[in-house]
Write a structure and sequence with these properties.
Layout: H1 3-29, H2 46-57, H3 65-72, H4 74-101, H5 108-116, H6 118-151, H7 157-172, H8 181-204, H9 229-242, H10 249-254, H11 263-288, H12 302-336, H13 347-370, H14 374-402, H15 409-446
Main location: membrane
Protein name: Transmembrane amino acid transporter protein-domain-containing protein
Membrane topology: Multi-pass membrane protein
Length: 460
């Protein structure tokens, strides 16, 4: 063997040893370890992570965006989608990069602990649990709406929602994200097909299905609308939330086989998501104008309403499943972290997991049915939970690690100013959005638009 060949072989051996050592160190610093006996939670591939990330965001939100355009108009609506989509994508990459620099993070609450201490961790932890569990409850309501549509209100709406809760909880009780990864793919495909059919159906009609059947009518398509502060803030909040669930990406990355690959699923998921949002929203608004149903699946007439809801049921159901699983997983890890029971197959492991899964399902169902203004509650939740988790905390993380750049020349000052400005925008979204949604709830009560708790009424 020549000297060059021997040198190359020795170099390859050194690289292999270093890579092995680096992988071992990575494993030692992760909350879930792949080299221990028991349950191996680190089993999600990067494309499986894409399906989970995309399904969390591509859910009930896509059904409400077209109606938002009727408030603000096509151009402002498109700009809001582009702006919030780009920013939420950037914030998601910030979270992934922070996790890579600070190993062992399971969720946003761990990151909050690094930059703000115990009280910050507890606050973010509560926001995470409440936020994702109530979004799971909205999925129950969505499934109930679909079943009401298909059966023409064949049973009490509460029973339909309870059925959704039972099936969602049963699937969410699989302990590893990799085990529900296939379901995420099914959910993505079913909801995409459903909305694609809706888009084609509204485009081929000579007039919107909800418009008067005969005579003249005003379509209500505007390039620029004239919203009030209340409707404008509600529209901005709705569009922001549709891609603002990026805090869910961190526990998904924690269960990836190789957490270093986080950029691929985030980039693809956010890119595809925002393109689909733009296309679906603009086409539906172009052909329906102000005659858009809420949710949007009812905008093409009774027949297509049943077809679209029938196809969308797996997507709505699995949206609840993934969100409920993440809320339960946070509690589970918090209770058993750094104990032998976290990844073992012990009685403590299984009893804890089953108990928190059932508790999250019950809490989501009871809250969704007991609060008569649950839809507006979700908007309020978006302001006080998702805006801090998707904007304020990621900007705080960057300032914690790179705040010194304000003293490093013009470019550094610009970077620091940008992140401070976005943090302030996050605070504005929190306060302004909370005000808008509280006022909306007050107006609903004043107009007698609020139903009763545990109502059997048809919600289709």
């Amino acid at each position: 063997m020549s000297y060059d060949s021997e040198k190359a072989a020795d170099t390859n051996k050194v690289i292999a040893v270093l890579e092995h050592a680096d992988a071992s160190n990575d494993d030692d610093n992760e909350v879930f370890r792949s080299n221990v006996a028991g349950e191996n939670y680190r089993a999600v591939s990067w494309y499986g992570s894409f399906a989970l990330m995309f399904k969390i965001l591509f859910s009930v939100g896509v059904l409400s965006i077209p109606s938002v355009f009727s408030y603000v108009g096509a151009l402002p609506g498109a700009l809001l989608l582009i702006g919030f989509g780009a920013f939420n994508t950037y914030a998601a990459f910030l979270l992934g990069a922070f996790r890579l620099r600070h190993r062992g993070m399971h969720g946003l609450q761990d990151m909050a602990y690094v930059v703000g201490g115990r009280w910050y961790r507890e606050l973010v932890g509560v926001l995470f649990i409440v936020g994702y569990d109530l979004v799971a409850g909205s999925g129950y309501i969505g499934v109930a709406t679909a079943l009401n549509t298909l059966s023409e209100h064949g049973a009490c709406t509460v029973w339909f929602a309870f059925t959704a809760c039972v099936f969602s909880t049963a699937l969410a009780m699989f302990p590893k994200l990799a085990q529900i990864g296939f379901a995420a793919w099914v959910g993505v495909i079913s909801l995409f097909v459903s909305i694609f059919i809706l888009v084609v159906a509204v485009a081929v009609r000579d007039r919107p299905a909800m418009a008067p059947a005969t005579g003249e009518y005003e379509l209500g398509f505007y390039a620029i609308g004239r919203p009030t502060f209340l409707t404008g803030m509600t529209a901005a909040l709705t569009i922001f939330i549709s891609s603002g669930g990026t805090s869910s990406f961190i526990p998904i990355i924690a269960e990836m086989k190789n957490p270093r690959e986080y950029k691929k699923p985030i980039g693809i998921a956010m890119g595809v998501l925002n393109v689909l949002y733009m296309v679906f929203a603009l086409v539906i608004y172009r052909y329906c104008g102000t005659w858009i149903a809420s949710p949007a699946l009812g905008s093409a007439g009774d027949l297509f309403k049943k077809i679209c809801y029938g196809i969308a049921i797996p997507g709505l159901w699995i949206s609840s499943t993934v969100n409920q699983h993440l809320a339960a997983k946070y509690i589970f890890v918090r209770l058993l972290r750094d104990t032998e029971h976290l990844q073992s197959k012990s009685m403590v492991h299984w009893v804890t997991w089953i108990a928190v899964s059932l508790a999250c399902g019950a809490a989501a169902f009871i809250t969704a049915e007991a609060i008569p203004f649950f839809g507006s509650l979700l908007g309020l939740l978006g302001a006080i939970a998702y805006a801090p988790m998707a904007i304020v905390v990621p900007m705080h993380l960057w300032l914690h690690d790179y705040g010194h750049r304000r003293r490093e020349g013009f470019r550094g000052k610009c970077q620091w100013t940008f992140h401070v400005a976005m943090l302030l925008i996050g605070l504005f979204m929190t306060v302004g959005g909370a005000y808008a949604m509280i006022q909306t709830i007050i107006d609903q009560y004043a107009a007698n638009l609020v139903s009763s708790a545990f109502s059997c009424a048809d919600n289709s």
